[in-house]
């Protein structure tokens, strides 16, 4: 199946600009370009309103970590979703992924905590992981403070990588994580899966971008460390139920599918969706793309269904 027409129009526009590699140059310039693209939304009415959006902080290993709490029912007991934004560990922030958090609130009926973790290259591995785990552990250890009926993690791309790594750490520390929503996650930084070559150029995220992002984040660290490549964890059993969404025209497609297979083989409950007409980043394209909107609806519904069975 071809790329959805609306997304192909977007790709044609991006490819015509002949932009430099996203993660290969000055990080501040890359962040500003990414922010401008992410916040240029032609359909603002399609982003759900949320009753309360509050900034706060959680103590972290290198100082306070900023969080943003999205809440449609302040004070009510609700599921908590701790969300980690994507952007190759280099770009992306709370604002670029504001629409992601709002959609989770509406569709899942959850209180969402979005995490402003430290980014590479200024803060290489394990900084992003450490911050994401610090916030998650704090929420897990203080559920009453957040009126939590359950606690899950979610993230897209690099955020999916962080969510998968945090889910493994939560199990190893004896915490009962309710679910993990992994949206086109990066889980294996070593294996050259077929989708990497098939979708190496022309589909927004390119193979060179993946190499640059990994180099910027890892900076010589062992790529088999499960905090970087969760697929290399010693165990994948007894993890939180996983919902994994991948896109047909994404270099990371087979990466996410391989992780789903690894979880399934270990006996962890997993639901995998492969959306053949979509590209990397589709979770943020729901305001302009009907196929993306349908995919987001399905993934969020699956997460809600898992939480409702607890």
What does the model show?
With 310 residues, the chain is of the alpha/beta class. The protein has a single domain (5-308), classed as Alpha/Beta hydrolase fold, catalytic domain (Rossmann fold, 3-Layer(aba) Sandwich). The protein is built from nine helices and eight strands. The chain has helices spanning 5-17, 27-39, 98-108, 127-141, 158-172, 194-198, 207-218, 253-266, 290-308, and strands at 52-60, 63-71, 78-84, 111-116, 148-156, 180-183, 242-249, 270-279. The protein has an eight-stranded mixed β-sheet, with helices on both faces. This is Alpha/beta hydrolase fold domain-containing protein. GO terms for molecular function: hydrolase activity. Keywords: Hydrolase. InterPro entries: AB_hydrolase_3, AB_hydrolase_fold, GDXG_lipolytic_enzyme, Lipase_GDXG_HIS_AS, Lipase_GDXG_put_SER_AS.
In total, how many beta strands?
8
- H/E topology pattern: HHEEEHEHEHEHHEHEH
Please state the average pLDDT score. 96
* Poorly predicted runs: none
Number of domains: 1
Q: CATH first level: which class? A: Alpha Beta
The helix tally amounts to: 9
Overall helicity: 25-40%
Structural class given helices, strands, pairing? Answer: alpha/beta
Name the CATH architecture.
3-Layer(aba) Sandwich
CATH topology: Rossmann fold
Distance between the termini: 37 Å
- Strand proportion, as a percent range, falls in 15-25%
Radius of gyration over alpha carbons?
18 Å
Instruction: State the major sheet.
Output: 8 strands, mixed
Task: Write down the overall geometry.
Answer: globular
User: CATH H-level name... which superfamily?
Assistant: Alpha/Beta hydrolase fold, catalytic domain
Organism: Epidermidibacterium keratini
Keywords: Hydrolase
GO molecular function: hydrolase activity
Pfam family, one: Abhydrolase_3
């Amino acid at each position: 199946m071809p790329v959805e027409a609306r997304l192909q129009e977007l790709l044609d526009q991006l490819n015509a600009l002949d932009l430099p590699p996203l993660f290969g140059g000055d990080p501040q310039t890359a962040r500003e370009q990414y922010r401008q693209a992410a916040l240029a939304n032609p359909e603002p009415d399609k982003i759900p309103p949320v009753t309360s959006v509050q900034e706060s902080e959680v103590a972290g290993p290198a100082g306070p970590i900023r969080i943003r709490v999205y809440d449609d029912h302040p004070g009510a007991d609700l599921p908590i979703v701790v969300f980690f934004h994507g952007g190759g560990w280099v770009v992306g922030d709370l604002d670029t992924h504001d629409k992601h958090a709002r959609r989770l609130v509406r569709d899942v009926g959850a209180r969402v905590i979005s995490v402003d973790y430290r980014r590479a290259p200024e803060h290489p591995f394990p900084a992003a992981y450490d911050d994401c785990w610090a916030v998650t552990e704090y929420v897990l250890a203080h559920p009453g403070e957040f009126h939590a009926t359950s606690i899950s993690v979610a993230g897209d791309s690099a955020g999916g990588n962080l969510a998968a790594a945090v889910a493994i750490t939560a199990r190893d520390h004896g915490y009962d994580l309710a679910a993990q929503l992994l949206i086109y996650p990066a889980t294996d930084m070593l294996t050259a899966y077929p989708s990497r070559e098939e979708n190496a150029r022309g589909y927004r995220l390119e193979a060179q971008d993946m190499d640059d992002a990994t180099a910027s984040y890892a900076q010589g660290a062992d790529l088999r460390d499960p905090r970087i490549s969760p697929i290399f964890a010693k165990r994948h059993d007894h993890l939180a139920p996983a919902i994994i969404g991948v896109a047909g025209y994404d270099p990371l497609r087979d990466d996410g599918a391989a992780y789903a297979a690894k979880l399934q083989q270990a006996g962890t409950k997993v639901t995998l969706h492969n959306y053949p007409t979509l590209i990397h980043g589709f979770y943020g394209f729901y305001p302009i793309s009907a196929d993306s909107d349908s995919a987001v609806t399905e993934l969020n519904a699956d997460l809600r269904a898992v939480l409702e069975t607890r």
